[in-house]
Amino acid sequence: MKPEKITLMVDGTFYTEPNAQKEWAERFKELTGIELEIIQPDHATYYDSVSQTIAANEIPDVILLNSTYYSSYASEGVLWDMTDAWNNSDIKKNMSESDIAVEESLMLNGRLYGLTRGRGNGAITYIKKQWLDNVGLDVPTTYEEYLAVCEAFTKGDPDGNGVDGDTYAVSAAGLIGPEAPWVNYLPEFYQDAYPSFYLDDNGNWVDGFTEPAMKEALERLRDAYAAGYIDPETLTNDTKAVRNKFYENKTGIFTYWAGKWADNLRANLIVNERDPELVACPPIAEVGTYIDRSTGGYCITNACKNPEGVFKYFFEGMFDGGDLQTLWLFGVEGIHWSQEAEEVNGVTYEAGQIHGLDSRENPGTSYSFDCLALDVGISDEYKATHNLASPDVAIASQELFNAHSRQEDRIVSTDEMSEFNGDLMTLKKSIIANVVTQGADIEAEFARFESEGGADWSKQIVDSLNALK
């Protein structure tokens, strides 16, 4: 039975109100006859809002979750088991084997609770080419060379404004990320350290926060912060603040998403009248590989009264090979995208090339495509009739990341993980902040980790994960 209305909870990667969310929902209703109520909390605090919404039992029909929350809420019974619907769907029937493998990477103990909107992807380090030229340095390949770039970008005049020391080398949205894989915005400092759970070389789960490598990473972070290489507002930055500092020439190094973001960064530098040439850097030797995130996805909740209908009209529509899939991939024609022969923000397009139009929220930049990625579930027939104009810098960035990345370990939630990991991660973040920004003694902070229960929580979670093997 077709639902009359679907409630959808999404983060800021979905179209926002300033970026024609209303028109998107109207187009969805035009194509399906279904009213879509979109719930979109602030992007930076999205998962706090998700937790509060579920705790208050005000659960939407469909919810967008990252890999960590996906595993947790699936194990807690919040999500509808869509395995049978998936196995009998036109989506699976029409997908390639590799695309099916991406979708089924979300399976937990053989059951599927959501569909991913694309491969996980990850962050890659971008450095402003003009800044490197101005300080006479090459792209760093080791941590020693990276620190030399950081010093020159912080103490010298990399932006060429005639003033030494008025810039920072690097900024990030937190000293530790808000979600797995945690270290992806400051990989050069974390290197082989990981502040959460991962599978070691023997196939056993361990908590990387308790290993010696973590103390070494904290020492690197503390020293770089004390030297002024790291933006002092990093602890409280969100991603938008970091992007703006990069556009405004306050920083010269930015580790951010591979692929389309290479072109987004370039375009925004042009808008801010900065040199747009960026170097997408292979990982330095001590990092070895970037981390390809485990994917999350769109999930139907057990609060939904008509999950079969939502799966048919919402999920199957994402991959219908027609107008609905186009809406999910590109947005609303004439607002978010066009295929007219024209010039948009300095780029000339031929007739038939699908390209982003000028952004309502950020004039001078073009829309990119966020709701659904362009790497899963696109049939050969669809590709033959939809010509996407892909910038060369985006393609090059994505190919470099793909060649130098490893897959993040997907954690299956346990009772102990659900009970302790929230408090455990809060304690870990507190220790990282104290060491890096306050210069606290590392050994004293790890003694606090022990005395405040962190070591015990960590051990119980590790034991529960290894018991599942």
Give the helix/strand layout.
Blueprint: E1 5-9, H1 21-32, E2 35-39, H2 46-55, E3 62-65, H3 67-75, H4 83-87, H5 90-94, H6 97-104, E4 123-128, H7 129-135, H8 143-155, E5 168-170, H9 187-190, E6 197-199, E7 205-207, H10 212-226, H11 239-247, E8 251-257, H12 260-271, E9 278-281, E10 290-292, E11 297-300, H13 307-318, H14 323-330, E12 337-338, E13 342-344, E14 347-349, E15 353-356, H15 380-385, E16 387-388, H16 392-403, E17 405-407, H17 415-438, H18 442-451, H19 454-467
Parallel strand pairs: 1-2, 1-3, 5-8, 10-17, 15-16
Antiparallel strand pairs: 3-11, 4-8, 4-9, 6-7, 12-15, 13-14
Helix pairs in contact: 10-17, 12-16, 17-18, 17-19
Distance between the ends: 40 Å
**Rough outline:** globular
Biggest beta sheet attributes = 4 strands, mixed
In DSSP terms (H or I, runs of 4 or more residues), the helix count works out at: 19
